[in-house]
Design goal:
Radius of gyration: 22 Å
Strand content: 25-35%
Helix content: 25-40%
Low-confidence stretches: 194-204
Number of strands: 11
Number of helices: 5
Number of domains: 2
Strand order of the largest sheet: 1-7-3-4
């Protein structure tokens, strides 16, 4: 039975491989003067984690909006009837990633699916309109292939810092090996173990 591998699960594994795990310590503090838009001091913010405080009191989510393009939170007070007063302390807390947003990693996954075609892999993977990885002829990726997609993408992103331990083999990036050579190693090990990749330290 085919198992649907989500892009979110692949992204989770990629983050582990490239050491870009979620950070929960994001905080930006401001003193309000006249501009009700506040630019956060970290990129790749998880918008659902944002909490806005006015003088120590959390503001309703209906009274502010986050724009990921500008990385700004704009306080509007559209429902509560409250307002900002000059000198108010505005503190915004959030979770974030230091290196890449989910959108960026999704784009990396999509671009690197071509590596499977280059190596004449038995399935042709592509990303559908819902940004999920699927294969032609309804042969969707298995859990192990999801791991392989994550490894390939991680190597293309950060080839000098990849370290992988599985039950059957390990790979550690070496500077004298090109990206192509590292990928060759991964596909060779994958084929040798018949796709049985079980991570010892990192899992989806």
């Amino acid at each position: 039975m085919s198992v649907t591998i989500t892009t979110a699960s692949i992204i989770t594994l990629i983050r582990g491989l490239i050491d870009d795990m979620l950070k929960t310590d994001g905080v930006s503090a401001f003193e309000y003067d006249s501009d009700n838009s506040f630019k956060l001091n970290s990129d790749n913010v998880v918008s659902s984690s944002i909490i806005v405080y006015q003088n120590g009191t959390a503001i309703s989510e209906d009274d502010w909006a986050y724009n990921s393009d500008t990385n700004k939170v704009t306080v509007t007070f559209v429902t509560s009837g409250e307002s900002l007063t000059k000198g108010d302390n505005i503190v915004i807390t959030f979770n974030h990633y230091e290196r890449f947003s989910d959108t960026e990693l999704t784009a990396y996954i999509k671009a690197n699916l071509v590596e499977f075609s280059r190596r004449n892999y038995k399935k042709t993977f592509y990303m559908n309109s819902s940004n999920e990885v699927v294969a032609l002829n309804d042969a969707n990726p298995t859990l192990k292939e999801g791991n392989l997609i994550a490894i390939v993408t991680a190597i293309k992103i950060d080839p000098k810092n990849i370290k992988i331990n599985t039950r059957d083999w390990s790979i550690s990036a070496e500077e004298y090996k090109s990206v192509s050579e590292q990928l060759d190693d991964v596909f060779r090990h994958f084929n040798f173990t018949l796709g049985d990749i079980d991570f010892l330290e990192k899992e989806i």
